[in-house]
Amino acid sequence: MTSSDHSARLRHTAGSRLKLRHLMLLQSVERHRTLSRVALELKVSQPAITKALHEIEDIFMASLFERTSRGLIPTAAGRAVLRFAQVTLADMASTAEVLTAIETGLIGRVRIGITPQVPESLLHAALTHLLDQSPRVSVLSREGTTDELVEALSAREIDCAIGRSFDHNVGVDIEQEPVYEQEPCLLVSAGSRTRLARGPLDWARLAKLDWIFPPPNTPMRRTFSTIFLSVGVQPPSPIVETMSLRTIETVLRNMPNGVTILAKDLVEDLVQRGDCAALPYKLSWNLPPVSLFVSRHMSNDPTIRSLATAIRLAAQRTVSTVRLTR
Questions:
Q1: Digits of tens for pLDDT over the chain (326 positions)?
Q2: In sequence order, which residues have a C-beta less than 8 Å from that of residue 89 and are 6 or more positions away?
């Protein structure tokens, strides 16, 4: 059988025999990896689960799992089919939410992810644009680190996100567009500013302080590590790992040697409240750009397109304002 014949047969078989219950079973198998737990969750017998799993493998004409002492381990084909099941069921859930919104008089639903350190101007522009739609749309807003939001986009759990640019491939199913550059700033407790600002910028001295780092595997965390390594200093072990501005402010308020790096426009709001202060050092690099991420299957949606335009315009206004105040 040629590859084209195999592909055609697979499409026909999946189209005629595949059921939603098969996809739900696959998700349960992925969660539990043992047939006994799957049977318990789905409230059917274990032989029935075994039979259904063989049926699914027959439909896809491939072995999807290896039976091991550690449970069911997905094969390469299994990982592909599990991904298909995840996306299909997520799309179904999303469609149900959209239909529910339409039933209540709205025209649809937009799910947007936002990192905690998105500039206020972009957050205001995005939410105002969505909430001012006429007819109105339902909005789901989800916070998380950029890597969490990219993962949610890939899983079809959100439609778009505002986060930090990834310095590596985010996947063919996601579009990434940098929209705003931010200047970095060293932030410390207000009571410690005079002491910590003495002398020239010294990363070896700063490394001995109590650092607040972003969570692992985020663009900002990789930037933090690169900063120290580029000047020949081992990155310090953080005392706290967070992206939450509220947590950062609380930690700095109570730790005389606490320090972190934030975008200058975010620092200004914290400084005005009196508990934090910026060190007077000019850093010679920018943070990873704030970027717009869009799930490719939503890139032509009119609401998403208009939202992207509103975010770009807000970014341009913010950049212009920053330049005028320098």
A1: 677 777 788 887 877 888 888 889 998 988 888 888 988 888 889 899 899 899 999 999 999 999 888 889 999 999 999 988 888 888 888 888 888 878 887 888 899 999 988 888 888 999 999 999 888 899 999 999 888 999 899 888 999 999 988 766 677 889 999 998 888 999 999 999 999 999 999 999 999 999 999 998 888 888 889 999 999 999 999 999 999 999 999 999 999 999 999 998 888 878 888 889 999 999 988 888 999 999 988 989 889 999 999 999 998 887 665 544 44
A2: 20, 23, 24, 27
Q: Which CATH number fits domain 105-181+289-325: 3.10.290.10, 3.40.50.300, 3.40.190.10, 3.40.50.2030?
A: 3.40.190.10
The amino acid that residue 127 corresponds to is L
Phi and psi angles of residue 219, each rounded to the nearest 5 degrees, phi first: -55, -40
Closest CA to 165 of 13, 15, 315, 56: 315
> Around 12, how many Cα atoms within 13 Å sit in the side-chain half-sphere?
6
Residues of the chain with CATH 1.10.10.10: 3-86
**Residue limits of CATH 3.40.190.10 in the chain:** 105-181+289-325, 184-278
Structure tokens given for 321: 């304002």
Kindly report the CATH number that applies to the domain delimited by 184-278. 3.40.190.10
Distance CA 26, CA 14 (A): 14
pTM metric for this prediction: 0.74
Q: Which residue has the tokens 């931010």?
A: 182
CATH of 3-86, one of 1.10.10.10, 3.20.20.70, 2.30.29.30, 3.30.360.10: 1.10.10.10
C-alpha 24/C-alpha 80 separation (Å) is 15
Structure tokens at 267: 């620092």
